[in-house]
Amino acid sequence: MLRLNKVKKEYKGFQLDCTLEVQEGCVTGLIGKNGAGKSTTFKAILGLISTDGGSIEIFGRPVSEMGIQDREDIGVVMSDSGFSGYLMVCDLIPILKSMYRNFQEEEFRRQCEKFRIPMDKKIKEFSTGMKRKLQVLAAITHEAKLLILDEPTSGLDVVARDKLLDMLRAYMEQEGRAILISSHISGDLEGICDDIYMIDEGKIVLYEETDVLLDSYGILKVTQEQYEGLDQEHILRSKKEEFGYSCMTDQRQFYQENYPQITVEKGNIDELIMMMVRGE
Amino acid sequence: MKGLLIKDFKILKGQKQFFASVLVVTFVFLMTNTSFSFVISYITVMTGMLTLTTISYDDHENGMGYLFTLPISRKGYVQEKYLFGFMTTMPVLAAASAAAFLVSRVRHIDFTAEEWTGAVLGSLLVITVMLSLLIPIELKFGTERSRVAMMVVFGGSFVVICAAVKVFEYLGIDWKIWVNRFDGLNLSVILTAFIMACGIIMAVSYLFSLRFMTKREF
User: Fold this and answer.
1) B170 CB contacts (<8 Å, ≥6 apart)?
2) Sign of CA dihedral A23, A24, A27, A29
3) What residue ranges do the domains of chain A occupy?
């Protein structure tokens, strides 16, 4: 569905060099700290910025060759922009209707009601969470094949976030669809993503299926002495701590079986990000 | 493009106070003043500003970036802005011109057909030049920086015109002769030349806007 091959973009003090792929039927997560390159990657995919090298293909075609009609197959949520704040939701309906041949007006209205999005209030008066919900609803109600969602759950409370993730799961029930999603909330990604790319300083530093990440990866907490006697073959990152070292591994079971005396934690995605970014 | 036009007209819907104030000023001028040419150009220029307002609103909080994630091309966006400018200013120019003509007759004020034609054509030229200059500036620099760019352009134009007049005076060239040459020409010739000039100005402006928009990053 989406393929980025060595996509490069240079800014002063930052260089993006990104290769990633989103397969049909998959929800792919892109995670990383602020300024790691997530939004730049999204903007490059959407043609909002020019690139300095590499290639981007959507639905098997170079993104530069995509026409207006191809864009109807994509639904987007941007982290730093949205519909004009001077419009009301009721104004958006005829606009979306004329832009998307498959816009599902009734579904859109129903979901707006469900998420308590007022029809007759200017969007600039909405909270961040409401703006985000509105964008998600607009993205999923026109039969898009690919969703590109940059921080769609930011600003949402737990209940709204859960409802929104349920909507995305329901969206994926239909065949031939895919989602690329970024979020700084690890729970969102653990719960919905099939695979995850981790980006840091513009480069993909880790790619793994979510199940493997949660089942096989782990954090070892070891003293200086234990660290020195540790088989380093499956250690991906180490970080000096007051008690000794924290070590990230992709073979948790190996260390659990062979080093029963050391503490092996399962580690969630947040901890894995921390280790990838701060570890050596 | 239809979606963009709907969006801009929906944005206009929120400009009721602006419309009300322009209408009041126009009404007061028509009823109390004898300078109908000014009224026609005033209301046309004020309406033309609305096109620039819609660009500012699109740009607000990086909204233009989001617009281009929807099925909208940059070329389509630029075309729509010129079309929207035309669709809003031309009916208003026609209505204001008709109103000024009628009021001048009702109030028995001497406002000849030549003066009226001059006012209509003058307003058309002013609005064409204004939109042709300001749309590309707004698209190139965005809302904030375009204010500075506009001041530079208008200030620069003023300085250039003043300098040109001084240079002509110094060289003993009477530029008014060129203007007077129009007096002898047939109205249809003037009109055709005028419309062609407006078209060329718009076309050049459109090409600049398209170039700026194609290169712009969000």
Assistant:
1) none
2) positive
3) 2-212, 217-278
Q: What is the pLDDT of residues A72-97, one digit of tens each?
A: 999 999 988 889 888 999 999 999 99
Q: What's the pLDDT at A74?
A: 96
Residues A166 and A160: their CA atoms lie apart, in Å, by: 10
Residue-number span of the structural domain to which B37 is assigned: 2-215
Q: Touching check for B63 and chain A: CB below 8 Å? A: yes
| Tokens found for residue B186 | 């047939």
Q: What pLDDT score was predicted for residue A27?
A: 95
Q: In the predicted model, what is the mean pLDDT of residues A220-233?
A: 89
3-state SS string for B16-75:
HHHHHHHHHHHHHHHHHCCCHHHHHHHHHHHHHHHHHHHHHHHHHHHHHHHHCCCCCCHH
Amino acid at A29: G
pLDDT band at residue A280, thresholds of 50, 70 and 90? Answer: confident
CA B37 – CA B102 distance, rounded (Å):
13
CA dihedral of residues A59, A62, A66, A70 (deg, nearest 10):
0
Given CB atoms, is B105 within the 8 Å cutoff of chain A? no
B173: pLDDT confidence band, cut at 50, 70 and 90? Answer: confident
> How far apart are the CA of B16 and the nearest CA of chain A, in angstroms?
13
Our count of domains for chain B comes to: 1
Whether B7 sits inside 8 A of A49 (CB atoms) is no
CB A169 within 8 A of CB A192: yes
Q: Are B109 and B32 in contact (CB under 8 A)?
A: no
Q: What number is the ipTM of this complex? A: 0.84
Q: How far is B64 from chain A (nearest CA, A)?
A: 8
Look at residue B132 in the predicted model and tell me its pLDDT.
93
Task: List the structure tokens of A237.
Answer: 């990152």
Position B154 scores a pLDDT of 74
First to last CA, chain B: 20
Q: Which CATH architecture has domain A2-212?
A: 3-Layer(aba) Sandwich (3.40)
Q: Is B45 on the interface with A (CB under 8 A)?
A: no
Report phi then psi at A169, rounded to 5. -65, -45
Other CB atoms within 10 A of residue B202 CB:
18
